[in-house]
């Protein structure tokens, strides 16, 4: 049985982050990275841009192809891990063979949710998670085709935008009353919806697809009101679910995801987890949560890697963040952005729908815990830093709503000490 000091399952943000965390502490220990995908490390965030023709296959890569060789990493690509054996510190691969480890990191990621409706197995029905998914959709996206995107979250809207840029007519069908329902309030969502519709996309809210129709392949979707929309391309974009099966079968504690402590350790010695599968500390609430976004996965991986290599490092906690640019209109939502009335939170906002401008700040006892920026997003990073610093922003509440707000105003009012200190916090 071939063995390595470090074995990492997963070759995306969390996996590569773990490699780099290890190498900051241990320059020589053998690392193996196992992935069921054959492609070298690439950025999943860019798959919709690949569909839209804005980036090439090479442009998807976020590390050079010789990255593994230069960092003494053995890539085991195109192989799926079938079982984890904690008792003997090994993992079993499909097709036979075992790999031994001293330290194991589970960057198992998440899988798209496909709810059970008739016709979902037909050719022409897709999800968007991997490069292979993106290739299939790209090949199908011919000018003049029609598409139905089921879901109005980040993946759904980016998919719709990409297809539109390929001259595909697109319907976005959402069961909730608004798009971006997990990260955006109704005011912000209405601005984004208007932007989509004025650029030629069709958006239908409070509607459900009950069947994918067609003889041999997808030809349309049937709605709950009985209407049938033509669609040769159907994309499920209803969110993702963490891949916990391997961990559960190995006796590793899981809730919704794999539960980890602030060192990214699981309940089993010498096994860590990071990324979209890891239920880790939330910075704002202090509880455990999965923030399935790229920066959190990288940071968690780095923390896991350093601890695997013998350093004592804690993960400070993740912050929800979603960013999307729709037809030239950028938006960023950070932290806790959706709160109920009479919940003890204060919300201040400034909105100008006709100018596509919206800024919203959520506070708890004058401490900023969340923000939404649409149109003018230059200071979204400043807001993120203020959240990380748990800054009391009582003195600058109104100033934060203006598009000329920057870190200098926070420094001038004593909210942060200086630029250098603020950058370290952000």
Describe it for me?
With 426 residues, the protein is α/β, with parallel strands linked by helices. It folds into three domains: 2-110 and 240-308, FAD/NAD(P)-binding domain, CATH 3.50.50.60; 114-236, FAD/NAD(P)-binding domain (3-Layer(bba) Sandwich), CATH 3.50.50; 328-425, FAD/NAD-linked reductase, C-terminal dimerisation domain (Enolase-like, domain 1). It is 24% helix and 28% strand. The protein is built from twelve helices and 25 strands. It has helices spanning 13-23, 47-51, 57-60, 67-70, 131-140, 154-165, 186-198, 245-249, 294-308, 380-388, 407-412, 419-425, and strands at residues 2-9, 31-35, 73-77, 81-85, 90-93, 98-106, 110-112, 125-127, 146-150, 169-173, 202-204, 209-213, 220-223, 228-230, 233-236, 240-242, 258-259, 271-273, 278-281, 288-289, 321-326, 329-335, 346-352, 357-364, 367-374. Strands 1, 2, 3, 4, 5, 6 and 18 form a seven-stranded mixed β-sheet that branches. A five-stranded parallel β-sheet has the order 8-15-9-10-11. A hairpin with a 4-residue loop joins β4 and β5. It is globular. The protein starts with a strand and ends with a helix. 45% of the residues are buried. Residues 420-426 have low confidence and may be disordered.
Write the layout of secondary structure elements.
Blueprint (H helix, E strand, L loop, with lengths): L1 E8 L3 H11 L7 E5 L11 H5 L5 H4 L6 H4 L2 E5 L3 E5 L4 E4 L4 E9 L3 E3 L12 E3 L3 H10 L5 E5 L3 H12 L3 E5 L12 H13 L3 E3 L4 E5 L6 E4 L4 E3 L2 E4 L3 E3 L2 H5 L8 E2 L11 E3 L4 E4 L6 E2 L4 H15 L12 E6 L2 E7 L10 E7 L4 E8 L2 E8 L5 H9 L18 H6 L6 H7 L1
Parallel strand pairs: 1-2, 1-6, 2-3, 6-18, 8-15, 9-10, 9-15, 10-11, 17-19
Antiparallel strand pairs: 4-5, 5-6, 7-16, 12-13, 13-14, 19-20, 21-22, 22-25, 23-24, 24-25
Helix pairs in contact: 1-9
């Amino acid at each position: 049985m071939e063995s390595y000091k470090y074995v990492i399952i997963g070759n995306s943000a969390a996996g590569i982050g773990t490699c780099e965390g290890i190498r900051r502490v241990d320059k020589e220990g053998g690392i193996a990275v196992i992935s069921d995908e054959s492609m070298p490390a690439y950025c999943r965030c860019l798959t919709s841009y690949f569909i839209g023709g804005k980036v090439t296959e090479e442009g998807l890569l976020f590390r050079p192809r010789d990255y593994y060789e230069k960092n003494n990493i053995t890539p085991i690509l195109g192989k799926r891990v079938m079982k984890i054996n904690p008792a003997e510190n090994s993992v079993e691969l499909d097709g036979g063979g075992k790999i031994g480890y001293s330290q194991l990191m589970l960057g198992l990621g998440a899988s798209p949710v496909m709810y059970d409706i008739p016709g979902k197995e037909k050719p022409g029905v897709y999800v968007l998670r991997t490069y292979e998914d993106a290739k299939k959709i790209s090949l199908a996206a011919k000018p003049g085709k029609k598409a139905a995107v089921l879901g109005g979250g980040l993946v759904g809207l980016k998919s719709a935008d990409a297809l539109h840029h390929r001259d595909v007519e697109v319907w976005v069908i959402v069961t909730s009353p608004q798009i971006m329902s997990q990260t955006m309030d109704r005011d912000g969502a209405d601005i984004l919806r208007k932007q989509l519709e004025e650029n030629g996309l069709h958006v239908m809210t409070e509607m459900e697809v009950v069947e994918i129709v067609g003889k041999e392949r997808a030809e349309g979707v049937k709605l709950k009101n009985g209407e049938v929309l033509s669609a040769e391309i159907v994309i499920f974009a209803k969110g993702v679910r963490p891949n916990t099966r391997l961990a559960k079968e190995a006796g590793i504690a899981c809730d919704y995801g794999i539960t980890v402590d602030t060192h990214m350790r699981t309940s089993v010695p010498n096994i860590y987890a990071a990324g979209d599968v890891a239920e880790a500390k939330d910075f704002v609430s202090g509880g455990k949560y999965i923030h399935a976004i790229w920066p959190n996965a990288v940071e968690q991986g780095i923390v896991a890697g350093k601890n695997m290599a013998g350093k004592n490092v804690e993960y400070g906690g993740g912050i929800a963040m979603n960013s999307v640019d729709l037809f030239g209109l950028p938006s960023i939502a950070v932290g806790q952005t959706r709160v109920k009335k009479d919940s003890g939170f204060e919300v201040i906002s400034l909105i100008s729908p006709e100018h596509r401008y919206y800024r919203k700040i959520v506070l708890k006892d004058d401490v900023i815990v969340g923000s939404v920026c649409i149109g003018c997003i230059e200071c979204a990073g400043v807001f993120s830093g203020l959240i990380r610093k748990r800054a009391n922003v009582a003195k600058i509440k109104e100033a934060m709503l203006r598009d000329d707000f920057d870190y200098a105003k926070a420094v001038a009012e004593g909210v942060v000490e200086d630029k250098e200190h603020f950058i370290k916090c952000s």
